[in-house]
Structures are given as structure tokens and as C-alpha cells.
Amino acid sequence: MSHNSFGHLFRFTTFGESHGPAIGCVVDGTPPGIPLTEADIQIDLNKRRPGQSKYTTQRQEPDTVKILSGVFEGVTTGTPIGLMIENVDQRSKDYSDIKDKYRPGHADYTYTSKYGLRDYKGGGRSSARETAMRVAAGAIARKILGPDIHVRGALVQMGERHINRDNWEWSQVKKNPFFSPDAESVSEFEGYLDGLRKSGSSIGAVIEVVASGVPVGWGAPIYGKLDQDLASAMMSINAVKGVEIGAGFGAAALTGEQNADEMRSGPNGPEFLANNAGGILGGISTGQDVVCRFAVKPTSSILAPRKTIDKVGIETDIITKGRHDPCVGIRAVPIGEAMMACILADHMMRHRAQCG
Asked: Is the model's pTM score more than 0.90?
């Protein structure tokens, strides 16, 4: 299986399976001399860690990261940084009943068709367990970006329930299990997801990631667009089915007058009167907030019987047991942040390489 690496000058390669002994990654391209400890990475991993509330999978993984290489006396050396997280709470027996059946909405059928076999225990490589290493790589990317660039994510929609953007406060994101910036939405999300969780069903979500402090000039026209790479990064996250930048699909309903981000002169250079472009014009950052949203489909592992076939084509029904997220979009928030940070770190280094 190829295509396990992501990025250009800042690049990471992940390895491992959901029910294997460990998962890990190698992060390449990190400049030397950057202070880095396991605790720096653990902060972000703890945001994604499972089992922290009844609204996520109850798999109990501490996600304790180990730095294996690339750091000496607390600073990066410029060599590849090896990271590893041990898997400690696998329950492979939960999957024995479905090892010969294809789960609707999962990658079981396509994996088997492509490779001739599949790891049925937790989905193997297709499991969102892999995303823990993306978050670890993203923590390193944040260190490269420095303290002046802030990458923050929030859940803005669950099913048909939206937050009230007039109530948006970033400080609220850390205060509830949904990463919601709207305090008033929390009780509604709780009641809604409780019902779905108890019935064994699931629901999708929309996540918004915002990067503030990104300077003008990152990205390149045509094949190195910043928004192009952001879309690719977010689409690579498990269960993501749609990505938009700035006004996104909403721009299709705007007139040219409404969509244009008008400009005026300010004391520190141009000032934009709107940000429908999501901080990117012609593939290059404008200096405004970079805004990206992505849609996460409902978790495919549900208790309701679904029609399927087995590996020899016999029609049957399937019920997926085990421990699963009723809304996988919740834990996608720190993953989206990590992928945004990785893209920005890569583009920062590319910009410096070309323009100094």
C-alpha cells in the first residue's frame, strides 16, 4: 500500500493499524533548533483522545506519545522525528461476527477489491485511529509556525442543528464535549446526541477551522494553491465528504457585488471589508483569517440491521457491534486543526525557499 505520506517540505508518513500493537509516524523537514517535548505533542493528542465523554467511542486509549528520534536535549535536530503511540485497549473479538461481511458505508468492499484482503479488526488502516498521528504531526507543525499564528477549530453543525454564530466565543470550545463555540447550543446537542446514541444510530457534522495571523503571500498559483492543498488535506480525513473555503458553496448564491471582498487603505496596509474568499485569493493567502469548513458523514457502524453481502456475494444483513462514535465529527475538530497546521507549515517553508 502506497500513499501513506503527506506534505512536501514539511512531510509526515504514518504507519500502523487500529488493532495492531502501535501506530506511529515519521515527520520530516522540521527545522533544527525548535524546542519540542512529548508534553508539547500530548496537549493536542488529549483533545482527540477517545473515551473522554459518553458522546465519543468508549475505547480507552491514553494515546501517550513517545519521541523516538529527531530531538536532542529538548530541541529538534533537523533529522526525521519518529513518534509512536501504543494501542492498549483493542477488542478484536467485537469484529469476529462481521469478518466475512461488508459493512455498508465502510471501506470493506473497496479494500478487499483493491488488495485482495482486508484487516476486519476495527478497519485496520482505514480506521480513524490513524488520525492520532496526524494530530501529533500537527503539534510539531504548530511549533514551526510559532506563537503568532493561531489554528482553531469548532463544530458548527450537527445533523440539521446549527450553532448561532452571533454567540460565537472561542473560549467556549474548550468548555464542552462538542467543541462548540456557542454555549447555548450545548444542551441541544446533548439531548439530540443522547437519543441517537441510545438507539445505536449516528449523525454527521460540519467542522470549521480558522487560522489567524497567516501573512500575505503563502501559496502559489495553479498547482500549489493554498486552498487546493487545504481541500486535499481535509478530504484525506476519514469520513469527510465535502470541503469549502470561505463562503464556499454559498458563493454560488451571491452576486459579484456581494462576493467581492472590497478593500480600503489602512494604517498597516490594505484592509478588507469582508472575507468571502476565506483568506485566499488566486491560491495565495491575503493576510486575513484562513477559513475552511468540512462535512463529516455519519459513523457507518450502527446497530440497526443493514442489508449487505458477504465476500462470496451472498445477500445478508449486518449489525455492527463494538465501540463507535455516535458523531465522529466531534473528534474531527482537533484533526482538522492538525491538518490546517501541517499545510500552513509546509507552505511557510515553501514560501521561504522561493522568496526568502
From this structure: yes
The model's pLDDT over 275-307, given as tens digits with 9 standing for 90+, comes to 999 999 999 999 999 999 999 999 888 878 899
**pLDDT score for 19:** 82
Q: Could you give the CA distance from residue 285 to residue 44 in angstroms, rounded to a whole number?
A: 25
Cα 3 from Cα 220, distance rounded (Å): 23
Q: 296: which strand partners? A: 205, 240
Cell of 135: 494530530
CA pair distance 71, 65, nearest whole angstrom: 14
> Which positions ≥6 away from 3 have C-beta within 8 Å?
none
End-to-end CA distance of the chain: 37
Q: What is the pLDDT of residues 124-149, one digit of tens each?
A: 788 888 999 999 999 999 999 999 99
* Share in percent of the chain as helix, strand, coil (round to 5): 35, 25, 45
Of 205, 193, 194, the residue nearest 158 (C-alpha): 205
Burial label for 334, CB within 10 Å (0-12, 13-18, 19+), is buried
Question: For 279, left (φ over 0), alpha (ψ -120 to 50), or beta?
Answer: left
- Give the total residue count for the chain: 356
CB 214 within 8 A of CB 164: no
65-88 residue pLDDT tens: 999 999 999 999 999 999 999 998
Amino acid letter for position 47 = K
| 207 close to 293: Cβ distance less than 8 angstroms | yes
Q: What is the pLDDT of residue 147?
A: 97
Residue 124: what residue type?
Answer: G
For residue 263, what are the β-bridge partners?
272
In the chain, DSSP finds a helix count (H) and a strand count (E) of 7, 18
